[in-house]
Fold:
Amino acid sequence: MNASVSKEPLDARDRPARLTVGVVGAGRVGPALAASLRLAGHRPVAVSGVSDASVRRAAALLPDVPLVTPAEVLARAELVLLTVPDDALPGLVEGLAETGAVRPGQLIVHTSGRYGTQVLDPALRAGALPLALHPVMTFTGTSVDVQRLAGCSFGVTAPEELRLAAEALVIEMGGEPEWIAEEARPLYHAALALGANHLVTLVAQSMELLRKAGVDAPDRMLGPLLGAALDNALRSGDAALTGPVARGDAGTVAAHVRQLRTHAPQAVAGYLAMARTTADRALAHGLLKPEYAEDLLDVLSDRANANGTNGKNGPEGSGPGESR
Structure:
């Protein structure tokens, strides 16, 4: 008798689960990744968390998954996600290995950007299979994170024999694997922090200053500007630089510094540091003309700012007067 075969794709809930999944550290990342793996047919079975916020996140993203101790998570799961802060990861791995919680053949995955797989060596010696899968995304701790994983890059470090497994897990979560060498992980993570974390600080600071200037909706004002700037930067790199520093408008920059000293002194150091870096990059790429650079760099120097000097263009000078 010939059995009929349905050609309709099976819903994830109808497929047999391939791996049981546990989460150690119910911060913003772990529950979202486990929820994404559940959509791919895996089965979350245990999660650990301490704070009230962790308990709420686990309940929202992983309903009906029991909250247990980290050791019990490892006892129940074939794939364990260690989603704790970077500084806590080495001690956690050592403690789990020393207490015999790690089982041979168990997949132990951490999501730290800083570390590769060497931090998992204690688990490796206990027979575990180590993977470093770092999602390159900021997390909110809500269900929206699961959707955002679609197309998200993952910084992946894995032993050669586990590369296919690492790639498969990332793809199942909707991500794109990007292979990072063990020794390059700290530089890789610094680059991401420089771009993403500092961007949040800059945007929040900019909104704060706009409110002080009387703008009612700074987010609405900045949205189109920052969206265009980000798009241009990703497309063109340093060629996208614009504004008074890239033009060499020393007088305008001096006026900025005076206003910040008066209204937001805590913002001065960051402004000067970013402006100096911008000037250096603009000079190196031929955007800032050398004849305008001297006055600008004088304005940006610690000595000039300590003395309150403004460069040759004067307090309200417009610098070289080039078009925007």
Remarks:
- The longest strand covers residues 129-135.
